[in-house]
């Protein structure tokens, strides 16, 4: 008997993460997968690190709101995880409320990223409503059920699951708003790219806060014509002005060149962590 | 009769931003200043851009949670504002609740940045409590007044203003947790450094998403021995993988060199915005 795989995601049911998890499970047709909701991204990745899960599906970056800090910080801290796959999910937000009369709406609940992705619509259509961040887009819908002066931003699917009226669709500021998700497992091997890898994600700190320290690192990529599809700085949590850098490299059919570059990087970085090499799955199109 | 200056900040009364605004107003002893609370950073900077305010005081970066995205995004978008001063405020968080018995606490309310800055304490002391983000640290205190099973993370001063019991102090993960604030005014001049400037803040987009584009920019700084005290990437909001870069330069007594570098930058960037040159005020020590 095959043991069922356990895949953790940021719940509850009705979040975009759950939609992404469903798509990944459908793609893995052969193997049965149990989807396990978590209330935080950090909690989900920690459960994976101590083998309570086989896989975790976490958001890494949104086209409007940028990197998902808790994913990057957890991968740096936990040190035992590797990215296996990536895919982009289109994020189409709907406005959900009991009444279609927007002038009666006093408060709008949603996840901070979703509120950020709909700022122009909110400022234009609901300039006087208070914006209240909650832990997930699905959580915001609970408030809609309780009061006629409350609205929420969530997916069409989540509104349908909660049997709540959809007042407007596609309210996100950017037409092609999408979120990149990573499928993460426990570490296997060194995370260096193979012939099937399209990207390698790494993070590093620099040896000293000196002019040109980051330049030396970028020079290594440039010398080898390696393109960066993301570069992101985050505070090292030691002091203001001290940073970690998170970089996604394009492998571009040359895994040996990227592997050689990763070796060269150890000489010009302080701590270097390989988050894994992976390919993009075509799961985004609906 | 002198007209009173109007300084906007992220309210309500009792936030760290209000504490920073109070310190700035005390430092500006001579001139009377009215402090005007706003419910969002974007709203505060927009009011300044259309001359409803004379100054805005906004958080720019925290030593644990990193850049304040809405400040960076608003400065890029509004295009008419200049940073006048900067200073660092120590951020010492307290846990506020009606009961000292932590095992009775079910929910903890605070601003997402404050929750992020106390993750280790929360995971150790309140592992089963739900963490609820709210719009400001002061807002979270309202829930404490309403229920004995609720806690909030806020400043000692805010707890005292609301006459609520302080259960624990200094619960932030990093002992020297601090937030950098910027005092912003409408644009005057070109924002280039003068002999009194210690820092210049800029933002830019690159001409194409090609290997080495960022490298060329960093090479300009390195050639001139200009140190970067911050480098931050944010999505351009056009597509995944397309970035803006926010950089703080140390002027280091050489304003002419930095000014010449800013001119050279126009050739290697797509859009370049000068957020202003300024000095640090010694307002941080209590």
TrEMBL record, chains A, B:
Pathway as given in its UniProt record: Amino-acid biosynthesis; L-phenylalanine biosynthesis; phenylpyruvate from prephenate: step 1/1
Pfam families for the chain: ACT, PDT
Location of the ACT domain: 202-279
Domain of life of the native organism: Bacteria
Cross-referenced PROSITE patterns: ACT, PREPHENATE_DEHYDR_2, PREPHENATE_DEHYDR_3
UniProtKB keywords: Amino-acid biosynthesis, Aromatic amino acid biosynthesis, Lyase, Phenylalanine biosynthesis
Cellular component GO terms held in the UniProt record: cytoplasm
Site-annotated residues for Essential for prephenate dehydratase activity: 179
Reactions catalysed according to its record: prephenate + H(+) = 3-phenylpyruvate + CO2 + H2O
UniProt entry tagged with the keyword Transmembrane: no
GO terms under biological process: L-phenylalanine biosynthetic process
GO molecular function: prephenate dehydratase activity
EC number: 4.2.1.51
Domain Prephenate dehydratase: 6-186
SUPFAM superfamilies: ACT-like (SSF55021), Periplasmic binding protein-like II (SSF53850)
NCBIfam families referenced in this protein's UniProt entry, alphabetically: PRK11898.1
Protein name from the UniProt record: Prephenate dehydratase
């Amino acid at each position: 008997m095959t043991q069922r795989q356990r895949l953790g995601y940021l719940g509850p049911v009705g979040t975009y993460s759950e939609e992404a998890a469903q798509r990944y499970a459908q793609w893995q047709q052969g193997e049965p997968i149990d989807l396990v909701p978590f209330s935080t991204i950090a909690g989900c990745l920690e459960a994976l690190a101590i083998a309570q899960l086989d896989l975790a599906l976490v958001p890494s970056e949104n086209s409007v709101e940028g990197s998902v800090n808790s994913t990057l910080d957890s991968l740096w801290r936990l040190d035992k995880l590797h990215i296996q796959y990536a895919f982009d999910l289109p994020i189409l937000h709907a406005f959900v409320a009991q009444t279609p009369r927007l002038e009666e709406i006093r408060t709008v609940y949603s996840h901070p990223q979703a509120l950020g992705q709909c700022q122009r619509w909110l400022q234009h259509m609901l300039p006087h409503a208070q914006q209240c961040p909650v832990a997930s887009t699905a959580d915001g819908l609970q408030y809609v059920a309780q009061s006629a002066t409350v609205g929420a931003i969530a997916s069409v699917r989540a509104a349908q699951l909660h049997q709540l009226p959809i007042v407007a669709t596609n309210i996100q500021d950017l037409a092609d708003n999408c979120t990149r998700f990573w499928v993460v497992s426990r570490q296997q091997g060194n995370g260096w790219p193979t012939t099937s890898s399209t990207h390698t994600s790494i993070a590093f700190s620099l040896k000293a806060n000196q002019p040109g320290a980051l330049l030396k690192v970028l020079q290594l990529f440039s010398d080898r014509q390696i393109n960066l599809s993301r570069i992101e700085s985050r505070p090292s949590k030691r002091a203001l002005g001290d940073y970690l850098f998170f970089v996604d490299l394009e492998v571009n059919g040359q895994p040996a060149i990227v592997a050689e570059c990763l070796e060269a990087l150890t000489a010009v970085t302080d701590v270097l962590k390989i988050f894994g090499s992976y390919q993009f799955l075509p799961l985004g199109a609906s």
